[in-house]
Write a structure and sequence with these properties.
The chain is an alpha/beta fold. It has 3 domains: 2-140, 3-Layer(aba) Sandwich (Rossmann fold); 208-311, Serine Threonine Protein Phosphatase 5, Tetratricopeptide repeat, CATH 1.25.40; 314-555, DNA Cyclobutane Dipyrimidine Photolyase, subunit A, domain 3 (Orthogonal Bundle), CATH 1.10.579.10. The chain has 24 helices and 7 strands. It has helices at 2-9, 27-36, 49-52, 59-78, 90-101, 115-131, 153-162, 178-181, 208-220, 236-239, 244-248, 254-274, 278-310, 333-340, 347-359, 364-377, 382-392, 398-407, 422-429, 434-439, 459-464, 480-496, 498-511, 528-533, and strands spanning 13-17, 41-47, 82-87, 105-109, 134-138, 417-419, 553-555. The strands form 2 sheets. Strands 3-2-1-4-5 form a 5-stranded parallel sheet, with helices on both faces. It has a two-stranded parallel sheet with strand order 6-7. Helix 6 links the parallel strand 4 (105-109) and strand 5. It is globular. Bound molecules: flavin-adenine dinucleotide. The site of flavin-adenine dinucleotide has 28 residues, from helix 11, helix 13, helix 16 and helix 18.
Length: 556
C-alpha cells in the first residue's frame, strides 16, 4: 500500500533508447533502475523522421531495428519496465512525455552519429536544461567525449573494455504509476509504416538474443578459422564474427564482445602452453592468433569512431584538405551507376556490389576493393559512393564508415594508399569463381580460365557460353591499369607539396593511433608482413614524422 502511494507521487524515471537496443551491459538503464530506488522506470524509443529519413537509411536498417526492439520489449517486460515508442521530433516527444508523466530525470547513452543526430542531441541537452530535467549520458564503448589528445587513448580503451559489465536488475514490482501504465505507444513500426517500400532481402536478423548466440558460436566454433579466412567472400561470411550490425544498433555492447573473446584467448593460450600433442597444440595456437586478430579489430572499431567524435566534419569534408578539389569536379554519373548496379565489367567488383544489395554485408577486404575501384579506377568522390554503401551496409556506423571511406580513397593524408587490382583480388579471393557465378548468373557458363577476365574470351567462347561481352555482360568500363597510373601520378604531385605534407602531420597528431609502450595499439598479427612493405600500416597509422607522410603506394 505504501509503495503504491509513493509511486503515485514520485515521478517515474525515463530512459531514452537510441542505438543501444539491449539490456545487458546497458549503463543508462542500469543507472535509472538504481536511482529509481524501487520507483517506476520507463523506456522510450523515438521514431524520428529526421533520423529515419537520412539518405543513409534503408528499409533493411529499419527491419533490423524493429527486430531488436521486439526482442528488447520482451526483455524489458521481464525487468518490469514498459517500452513506449512514439513518432516525432525527439525534443517534442520527450517534452510531451515529461508533461504526461512528470519525469524529471532522463538517462541515455552518448552517440557518435551523423551531423543530424549530433545536432539532435544538442537540442535535447538544451531542452533538458531549459525545463529542468536532469539529463545523464553514459559512454557505451571506448570513445571519449571531448578528448584533448590521442596520447594514452589505447590504455583508456583497454581499461574500459576490462571494466565489469553493468548489471541490470528487475524492478522490485510491476509499474503502478497509472500514467505510465496507460501511456499511449506507437508500437513497433514496420519500414512500411515509416514510408519505406518493402524489399526482398536476405540480411541477418537483429535482436540481443541473436547477437548473444552469434558471439557464442564465434568463440565456440567459427572463430577458429578467423585468421586466414576473413578476406575471401567465399569463406568470410562464416569465418568473420558477423557482429557488426549488432554493435552498430547496440544490440550487444563492445565490452561484452571483448570480454568473451578475452576469456577465450586466455583459455586457448593456457591450453597451447600445456598441450603436448603437436596437432592439438597447433589448433590452440590457431585459435589464439584468430582471437587476437579479431580483438585488434574491436580496438579499431572505437579508434575509427573516435575520429568522427573528434572531428564531426569528416562526414562531409576531406580529413586532409590538400585533397580538396581532387575528384569533386570529375564525377561521372555513368560510372557511378555502373558501379552501383554491378555493371563495371570487372566480375569481382560487380559480384560484390550485387551481393551487397541483397545481403547488406561484405567482408572488409571486399569493401576496400569496391571503394578502391570507385575512388581510384573510376575517380569518384567518396561522399556519393559512401552514401550508397551506407544504405547497403546493415552495419552502417558513421564513425567507422566515413573514416574508412576517406582512408580507402586516399584523403586522410596519413594512410598508405592501398589500391586494389580487381583481377588479382578475384583470382586470389575467389579462384574458382564460385562467388562471381552466384551473383553474376550471366557468367554461369563462362569457362574457369576466363571467369576473372571475361573480356578476353574469344568470340566463339562468348557465343558457346551465352555471354556476349558488351551486351550480356559489359566490357570493362575503364582500363584499370591506365586509371591506376593516372591516380598515382595525381597523388604523387599532391604529396610533393610541403604544405600538404605539413597538414598530413597535423592530421596524424589529431587522429593517428599511438604505439606507446604501455598501451600499444593492438596490432593485427596477420598484417605483420604488410607492415614490412609500408612504413605506415593501412589500419594503424601512427604519428608521422615529415618523411613518413610521404607514404608508399601498395598495389594489391
Ligand atoms: C569502406 C568501408 C566502410 C566500412 N563501413 C563500416 C560500417 O559502416 N560499420 C562497421 O561496423 N564496419 C565498417 N567497416 C569495417 C569492416 O569492414 C566491418 O566492420 C566488418 O566487415 C564487419 O564484419 P564482422 O562483424 O564480421 O567483422 P569482424 O572481422 O568479425 O570484426 C569484429 C568487429 O570489429 C570491428 N571491425 C572490423 N574491421 C574493422 C575495421 N576495418 N575498422 C573498424 N572496425 C572494424 C567491427 O565492429 C566488427 O564487427 C567498413 C570498412 C570499409 C573498408
Amino acid at each position: 500500500m505504501y509503495g503504491l502511494a509513493v509511486s503515485q507521487i514520485v515521478p517515474p524515471l525515463c530512459v531514452w533508447l537510441k542505438r543501444d537496443l539491449r539490456v545487458v551491459d546497458h549503463a543508462a538503464l542500469s543507472a535509472a533502475i538504481e536511482r529509481a530506488q524501487g520507483g517506476d522506470v520507463f523506456c522510450v524509443f523515438v521514431y524520428e523522421p529526421e533520423i529515419f529519413c537520412q539518405p543513409e537509411i534503408h528499409s533493411r536498417h529499419l527491419t533490423f531495428q524493429r527486430e531488436c526492439l521486439i526482442d528488447l520489449e520482451k526483455s524489458l517486460q521481464q525487468l518490469r519496465i514498459r517500452l513506449i515508442t512514439r513518432q516525432g521530433d525527439a525534443v517534442t516527444v520527450l517534452e510531451q512525455l515529461r508533461r504526461e508523466t512528470g519525469f524529471s530525470k532522463l538517462f541515455a547513452h552518448e552517440e557518435t552519429g551523423t551531423a543530424i543526430s549530433y545536432a539532435r542531441d544538442q537540442r535535447v541537452r538544451h531542452w533538458a536544461q531549459t525545463v529542468g530535467v536532469q539529463f545523464e549520458e553514459f559512454s557505451q564503448n571506448g570513445v571519449v567525449r571531448r578528448l584533448n589528445s590521442r596520447d594514452g587513448w589505447n590504455r583508456y580503451w583497454e581499461s574500459k573494455m576490462n571494466q565489469p559489465q553493468t548489471v541490470v536488475h528487475p524492478l522490485p514490482r510491476h509499474c503502478v504509476n497509472k500514467t505510465v501504465v496507460q501511456l499511449p505507444s506507437a508500437g513497433l513500426l514496420q519500414p512500411i509504416d515509416l514510408g519505406y517500400e518493402k524489399k526482398q532481402m536476405d540480411c541477418q536478423p537483429g535482436g540481443e538474443h541473436n547477437a548473444g548466440m552469434i558471439l557464442q558460436d564465434f568463440v565456440d566454433n567459427r572463430g577458429q578459422f578467423y585468421s586466414g579466412r576473413i578476406s575471401s567472400p567465399v569463406t568470410a561470411p562464416k569465418s568473420c564474427s558477423r557482429l557488426s550490425a549488432h554493435l552498430a544498433f547496440g544490440a550487444i555492447s563492445i565490452r561484452r564482445v571483448w570480454q568473451a573473446t578475452e576469456q577465450k584467448r586466455s583459455e586457448v593460450r593456457g591450453l597451447a602452453m600445456t598441450e603436448t600433442n603437436q596437432a592439438a597444440r597447433k589448433q590452440f595456437q590457431r585459435w589464439q592468433k584468430s582471437i587476437q586478430s579479431m580483438q585488434s579489430r574491436l580496438h579499431w572499431h572505437c579508434h575509427f569512431m573516435q575520429k568522427l567524435e573528434d572531428e564531426p566534419e569528416i562526414e562531409y569534408r576531406n580529413m586532409w584538405s590538400a585533397a580538396d578539389g581532387l575528384r569533386e569536379k570529375e564525377f561521372s554519373n555513368e560510372y557511378f551507376q555502373a558501379w552501383k548496379n554491378g555493371r563495371t565489367g570487372y566480375p569481382l567488383v560487380d559480384a560484390c556490389m550485387r551481393s551487397l544489395e541483397v545481403s547488406g554485408w561484405l567482408p572488409f577486404r571486399m569493401r576496400a576493393l569496391v571503394v578502391s575501384f570507385a575512388s581510384y579506377s573510376l575517380w569518384l568522390h567518396w561522399r556519393p559512393t559512401g552514401l550508397h554503401l551506407a544504405t547497403c551496409f546493415l552495419d552502417f556506423e558513421p564513425g567507422i564508415h566515413w573514416s574508412q571511406m576517406q582512408m580507402q580513397s586516399g584523403t586522410t593524408g596519413i594512410n598508405t594508399l592501398r589500391i586494389y587490382n580487381p583481377t588479382k583480388q578475384a583470382k586470389e579471393q575467389d579462384p574458382q569463381g564460385h562467388f562471381i557465378r552466384k551473383w553474376l548468373p550471366e557468367l554461369m557458363s563462362v569457362p574457369d580460365v576466363f571467369i576473372h577476365t571475361p573480356w578476353m574470351m574469344p568470340a566463339h567462347i562468348q557465343q558457346s557460353s551465352g555471354c556476349e561481352i558488351g551486351s550480356v555482360y559489359p566490357k570493362p568500363i575503364v582500363d584499370h591499369a591506365l586509371a591506376l597510373r593516372q591516380a598515382k601520378s595525381r597523388f604523387t604531385v599532391l604529396r610533393q607539396d610541403k604544405k600538404a605534407r605539413d597538414e598530413a602531420s597535423a592530421v596524424a597528431v589529431r587522429h593517428g593511433s599511438r604505439r606507446d609502450r604501455r598501451g600499444a595499439m593492438r596490432q593485427d598479427p596477420e598484417r605483420k608482413s604488410l607492415r614490412k612493405k609500408a612504413s605506415v600500416d593501412q589500419q594503424s597509422e601512427t604519428v608521422c614524422t615529415e618523411e613518413q607522410t610521404v607514404l608508399p603506394f601498395i598495389y594489391e
